[in-house]
Structures are given as structure tokens and as C-alpha cells.
Amino acid sequence: MRLYPLRLWSSDVEFSFMTFRNYSYMISIALMLISIISLGVFKLNFGIDFVGGINIEISSKKPIQLAQMRKNLEKINLKEVLIQSIGENEIGIKVASGKDHDTSSIIDRIKKSINTEFENNRIKYERVDFVGPQVGSQMIWSGIMSVTLAFAAIVAYIWIRFEWRFGIGIILSLVHDIILCLGFASWMQLDFNLSSIAALLTIVGYSVNDSVVIYDRIRENLHKWSHKNIIEIINMSINQTLSRTTLTVLTTLIANLALIVYGGKAIQEFSLLMFFGILVGTFSSIFIAAPILPMFKLEKI
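== Protein-export membrane protein SecF ==
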């Protein structure tokens, strides 16, 4: 039995993407301005990894459910709490203390709440310490460096595989994606932590992958249809890869939606940022990375 590739529509479909490229540029610029304003007004809601906080590790004779511990600590109105299993009958608790809070008072409240709720579990505090904001500043710098190095590596790869014009297209689309994702995180007041950096790097990789598929088809069509102008070739290339792009984004969004709905608070905000970033990355690969190439006099490779 012969298997045929799954397609949402024929590769011969002809949507005139290049006709609307100027409108897509205006939409993108407007969204970037809104995102920058959001960053200025609401700012990023930096989490424990970046602003510092309290780190507590406990062990118990009996198992404690993470959801049960989270529900218990929610009663004392802490700013941000991250709870995770770190071993058999061992739980790690990270709490953002904030600039205007007394650290020792917060620790006392946490201990009192845990001891009252789980008095029969024979709780033992293996570790209780405080991570200062200076460590958080180092983490912010490390996060910036990781994104910058990813940018540089991606541009170098595109430059080697294709040419410099494609590299500029990738840079512009990725700057667009990162600014919109940061603006979304600030507007939604998502906890911005190391998981958020991981989400941004994943979004960057996803967006580049989409763009490279289109770029590869553009390069192929430039050789195959040398008599056609660049506008026709780019439009043809986007249409030829559209079914693949749509199927990929739909399957990824469905997986992310499941994490948002059923993943719990620990990964919900990570998945939400990923969901938005995938939509933005797909938009930029179709309406920015490829359509912008004629501005740099791309004719032949």
C-alpha cells in the first residue's frame, strides 16, 4: 500500500502573499511599538531566578503531593512560589521575597504553615537560604548572552548556507519575534524566569526552522525558474511550503494547548509564551523573512 504525504491543500495553491507585504510590515511595526510601550509601562515581571528569593528544601517520612503543598502555601499570600520534587519524599520550594519584605518573617510564615498542615509527616528542613538580587542580575546577564549567542550562531549558519541577504531577513524576523514575545510577557505579567529564556530560545529555533524551509525552496526555484522575477518566485515558494508550515504549526499549537490546560501552574506560563511565540514566528517567516528579500536586491544565488 502506497502512503501519500498529508496536505491541507495542493502545493499549486496561489495565495498572493507578496501583494500584502506592505500591510504586513505596517502591522508588524505597529505590534512592535505596542510591545515596546507595554515593556515600558508594565515592565517584565521578573521571577525568582532574576530578582532573588528564598530557597527551602524539605524532606518528610510520608509522601507529600505537590498540589497539596502549593494549595497550602497559597493561603499565606506569597508573591511567587515555585514548588518541585527534588527526590524521594523531598520537595524544593522557591519564594520571591521582593524588595520590601522581611526575609526572616516570610521564612517563619512558610515554616508555620507547613508545620501546621503536615504535622504528621515529620517534616525536616534540609536547607533554608536566601539568594540575593546580585545573583539575579548575573542570571539576567547570562540570559541576554544566551539569546545573543543564539542569534549570532543562527545568522552565521544562514549566511554560510545561503547568503547575507537571507541573514538580514532572519535577523529582522527574529527581532520582531523577540520584541512581540517580551511585550506579550509584560502585558500578561507572566513570571519571567529561566523557563522564559528557554521558551524564547525555542521560539527562535522554531521561527528559523520555518524560514529556512521557505528559503530553501526560494533558492531551488531561483535556479529552476530563472526567467521569473523575484516577487513571483518568493510568492510561489511560500505557497509551495504552506501546507507543511500549517500542519507543523497546528500540531505544535495543539501540544502546547494541552500543556496550558492540563500542565498545571508550573509549566502553564511557559506553554502560554510558547503558544504565542509559535504564532508570531509563523507569521514572521511567511510575511517578513521571505517577502523582505527583494528590498536587498536579491535576484540570483
